[in-house]
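Usage example:
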Amino acid sequence: MTKSPPPFGFTRRRVLALGAATSATALLATRASAQLRLDVTQGNVQPIPIAVPDFVGGTPNDAESARGITQVITNNLRRSGLFNPIDPAAYIEKIASFDMLPRFPDWRAINAQGLITGRVTRQGDGRLKVEFRLWDVTSGQQLTGQQYFTSPDNWRRISHIVSDQVYERLTGEKGYFDTRIVFIDETGGKERRVKRLSIMDQDGASVRYLTRGEDLVLTPRFSPSTQEITYMSYGQGDPRVFLLNIETGQREIVGNFPGMTFSPRFSPTGQQVIMSLQQGANSNLFVMDLQSKRTTRLTDTSAIDTAPCFAPDGGRICFESDRGGRPQIYVMGASGGAAQRVSFGEGSYSTPVWSPRGDFIAFTKQGGGQFSIGIMKPDGSGERLLTSGYHNEGPTFAPNGRVVMFFRDQAGGPSLYTIDVTGRNEQRVPTPAFASDPAWSPLLS
Amino acid sequence: MKAGWTISAVLHGVVLGATLIVFAIKPLSAPPLEFISTDIISDADFSQITNGIKTAPKAETPKPLVEKIAETKPVEEHKAKVVDKKPEIVATSDKVEPPKPEPEQKKPEPKPPTPAAKSEPKQAFAKEPEQKIDPIAEALKKDAKKPDPKTQQKAETPMPQKKPEPVKPQPKFDASRIAALLDKRDPQRHSATGATLSQTPSLGTATGRSASLTQSEIDALRARIQQCWNPPAGLADARDLIVVVRIRFNTDGSLSADPTLSNSGSHPTFQVAAESALRAVRRCAPYSFMPITKYDVWKDVEVTFDPRDMFRG
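Running the assembly step on the lines above writes:
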């Protein structure tokens, strides 16, 4: 064995040479840099113009479902407020084939930035094949493309999934279209209002009723698995918190408490339910493990503590309490302990709910003869009212934390609305009748 | 009291009446004004216009003035070359120092700004001779000490070898030399920076700085890009996501190449942010409003898309 110098040893000469080389390249790099530098710090917050021509039908019979899918996607994107689907009447090119490259100059001419093309084909086995491509019109590049197989009556969900893909690809945020809303459907006169637990897609389609309306139901909430709903109901006897499996229709009472329980909510893991238990004139917070049925008391005060809600990491909870005189929002550890008041504005605060993103707590604020929906940071700073009016209540976040849904009482009954956390883009959610107490599900897929 | 009032009133009336008559006799006349047409330009424009622009169209009148500048500067370059060569030859000795005084001599030349009055007559007389005078002048001063430098200036390259030897005496005489040089080189300066030159940019002075864009022109470009930029909503979460895009233009303001990214990021939404920036640049093309005379400045632009301000608060 002869010792030879290691091929890549750090001799002084090598290091020097390396240093010289680096400085030389650095010099070259600076030489090659542009002459003029410019900072663009403001953008145009207008919705992104996007073209969604009808998906191509693989066979003539598929044209109808293709058009339906296109319309659901268009509607989703428009309602988000971040996209501006261009009127199909303005389209110059008619997309005749999914496999050919679109004529991008034609789409640039109508000022589109994005273009969605797609094809719907019914397979031999009866399933539906849905393909789509999202194009960057300015560069002519495909940004994303997918294909899905599903049963034909599932076409609406596929449309939502495609919408989510487009949304995420162009905004950098997760979408929220493939989600459901559970809410209280209200029919009948004011004296004999029938309230039914209902579920629908986030765009108001596919409404299903989960209860028949004999009992009064309130405050339904989704479990993280989206398969279960917890809610409060009372027919005979005390109001109770129930658990309902959406698929099987199975129903059970949560816990065996000696008083009325209300305002339940799932923990982020879905393993626990947190709720209020009334004890005399007071109410306190309890958390119950659904597996072991073990309950833990979190607060023990001579005040009304209610409307608890977990932070998305499960480490803290926010709730409403009148221990300070008027109802205000407090935050404390998920296992109890000292609570810290976070709301300090005029009026009273109620129904706090933590954003799935963790950055905000949304609340209902009552004061000055008005009910407002607002958001604040979890430390209570940066309070911002999104909407105010005669009666607004019960905010719930979309899974991406960008949109808040709530209900508003007007014209004889409540209806559902959405608004961006920016305070813009207020939209009414279509429901078959009056509707209240919405709760947004997590993404289904 | 009444008497006092009346006297006062009468006297006042007399004085006022008198002034009316006296001043009315000679109406104030103003000599008719001659109108001078003026253009308002910024300081930056003014200083840069005198330097000339590569891409400017050839202007007939100002040419001679510019040519002088162009000629004087090559002289400097020659000297610079000489300096480079000296060290090679001298190698072992400390004689490298002498070349330094020479560049010093050159620097003073440009500095003295001088009255415009002198410049005009001299321009007319001799534009080329002036430059020749300079070397001679230098030579004259150096004559006493060195015969060599003269030849160097006349014949650019071959002479430097001889220089090093006589160099030593030079430093001692520096002060007087510089003074002499300054005096004689003044006239060149006058012709070079005379106000007349500023009328039109002219072609090709080698050392002329190219014009820079005015603030309003930069703002126009920025505003155009901002208008086309739809910052993705996801940027609100990633406030530090900065995208730098390099743009290369044609003279008509169109993109000569697809814009490229100058930075990269590991954040999941960086790609989305980068694409939105590239889309903005492509959408806005062509940028036909950019002044073609300053193409050199904006042919290659680096734009930093910084959304932090937008989502603040």
